[in-house]
UniProtKB/TrEMBL annotation, chain B:
NCBIfam families: CPA3_mnhG_phaG, PRK12672.1
Record InterPro entries: PhaG_MnhG_YufB
Species the sequence originates in: Thermococcus sibiricus (strain DSM 12597 / MM 739)
Highest taxon of source: Archaea
Protein name in the entry: Membrane-bound hydrogenase MBH 1, subunit Mbh1C (Na+/H+ transporter subunit)
Coiled-coil annotated spans: none
The keyword Protein transport appears for this protein: no
Keywords, alphabetical: Membrane, Transmembrane, Transmembrane helix
KW Transmembrane helix (keyword) present: yes
TM helices/strands, residue ranges: 6-24, 36-56, 68-85
Lineage: Archaea, Methanobacteriati, Methanobacteriota, Thermococci, Thermococcales
A GO MF label: sodium:proton antiporter activity
Pfam families the record matches: PhaG_MnhG_YufB
Length: 87, 121
């Protein structure tokens, strides 16, 4: 790796992601798990940006943009499914 | 000097991301968990992108490589996309959770429910 300080930052963000993953696994209801997945999406975007700088590759940051937009669409579709139909 | 500022921004980012993910375990119901997690992780991502932009501008000044300008601009685009879509997604999840029957814990009054029944304006 070329810039190690951003790699250590990514390790911290990954730790936060594992704490979130525990809530996704043991959430008592379905909206709790959806909140956990939405938080995990934001953390993955932050970690991917930091990893792209750490390895000095710009393409990881482009993938982070696409991941942010696609995870937003996924969140909206899950919310639409939860509230029961198209109204 | 510039490394100290980058380390400070990364430390703020990691602190707020970990606090946001811990708030998922400390709050009682869906709405307060959404409140804590969404705000804290958005704030943490803003500071991570600030560190990336500062580092890229510094590298651009030293090496004069246009790759670093591209890195700064693309991370700014990712930050803008995240800041536009994150509150919208949180609002959609909150409304869907209320309509799917998940009630707020320890709440005295539920104005959304009262307005749906037509008791208040």
């Amino acid at each position: 790796m070329i810039f190690p300080e951003f790699f250590y930052g990514m390790i911290g963000v990954a730790l936060a992601g594992f704490i979130t993953l525990a809530r996704v696994m043991l959430g008592p209801s379905v909206p709790d798990r959806v909140v956990g997945v939405d938080t995990l999406n934001t953390l993955i975007v932050a970690g991917m940006i930091l990893l792209g700088v750490a390895y000095d590759r710009v393409i990881y940051i482009d993938i982070a943009i696409v991941y942010a937009l696609l995870s937003y669409i996924g969140t909206l579709i899950i919310a639409k499914y939860l509230q029961g139909g198209l109204e | 000097m510039i490394e100290i500022i980058i380390y400070a921004f990364l430390a703020v980012s990691i602190t707020f991301n970990i606090l946001g993910s811990l708030s998922l375990h400390r709050f009682p119901d869906v709405y307060t968990r959404l409140h804590g997690a969404t705000k804290c992780t958005t704030f943490g991502t803003i500071f991570a992108v600030f560190a990336v932009v500062l580092h890229s501008i510094w590298q651009l000044r030293e090496t004069n490589d246009p790759k670093y300008l591209q890195m700064a601009l693309h991370s700014m685009v990712a930050l803008i996309a995240l800041m536009l879509t994150n509150p919208t997604g949180a609002h959609a999840i909150a409304k869907a959770a209320h309509l799917s029957g998940s009630k707020p814990a320890k709440a005295v009054i539920d104005a959304y429910e009262l307005r749906a029944r037509g008791e208040v304006q």
